[in-house]
Design goal:
The protein is of the alpha/beta class. The protein contains nine helices and ten strands. Strand 8 and strand 9 form a beta hairpin.
């Protein structure tokens, strides 16, 4: 149902963009991302927390799809309305920490190419109960963001569908490790065809709290599963038997 609605929405966007009666040209998200490789991505760092130190180090090693520079919050405040830059920021919301990639721009700008918009939001940790895995997996999180941008630049389906578009990938010959210790070992060894089960959930519960479950490739850092759901308690932050069976139906061997 979600895929059908997304298809209809994209069709409507394309149809309206072709109508001559509209004086303002409409651009799809794919079109608005076309300049990404030529623009500088400003990586915003505020201090020297372990998370920021890990981000700085892994950006230097893994960022490959655009020029980048580090900046502080003051510089970010002065540049954030400029469409000449993209920004990678650390943010917190409802007990979770995210890496957010966004394009700079002004709110209410008539030219869509100069409007600010969020490209992708990657959950990385619980704010109140970080596991330490966010430091280990920082390179993988950056890989997922970059892979998404590359796909979104050529596919409006990906650009509008977000990270959950990866859920349709086949898992044939893959081994899914849902046990954290085994998953961490596979990641550190870069085990081929190994997928790591990663869950991120808050501590405090409110009406708006959510949690995330992911499968991430140990060697290529690709995303093979991304699920966002309401969080009502610890059981919601664990992979269920139903999910394990779903992975098996997609061709994987599941190790719990």
């Amino acid at each position: 149902m979600k895929s059908r609605l997304l298809h209809l929405f994209l069709l409507a966007v394309l149809l309206f963009s072709a109508l001559p009666a509209f004086s303002q040209k409409i651009y799809t998200r794919k079109m608005r991302l076309a300049d990404f490789p030529t623009k500088t991505t400003k990586v915003v760092l505020e201090g020297n927390s372990f998370l920021e130190l890990a981000l700085r180090e892994e950006i230097s090693v893994h960022w490959r799809i655009s020029p980048y520079e580090f900046c502080d919050p003051a510089e970010y405040a002065g540049l954030r309305t400029s469409s000449s830059y993209y920004f990678l920021t650390l943010a917190q919301e409802e007990g979770l920490a995210y890496l957010i990639l966004s394009k700079g721009g002004k709110e209410g700008e008539t030219d869509q190419l100069k409007q600010a918009f969020e490209v992708v939001r990657m959950p990385i940790a619980s704010v109140d109960d970080p596991s330490g895995r966010e430091l280990v997996f920082m390179g993988a999180f950056l890989g997922i963001i970059q892979n998404f941008v590359e796909q979104a630049m050529v596919s409006d389906k990906t650009a509008y569908g977000g990270l959950s578009e990866r859920n349709g990938l086949k898992l044939k010959d893959k081994t899914v490790y849902l046990d954290p210790d085994q998953a961490d070992k596979a990641y550190l060894e870069g085990t081929p065809d190994a997928l790591l089960g990663v869950t991120i959930a808050p501590v405090q519960i409110s009406f708006d709290t959510v949690c995330y479950k992911m499968l991430i490739s140990a060697d290529t850092h690709e995303l093979f599963y991304f699920e966002k759901s309401k969080y009502k308690g610890p059981s919601d932050g664990r992979f269920t038997d139903a999910e394990a069976k779903r992975f098996e139906r997609r061709g994987a061997t599941v190790v719990r």
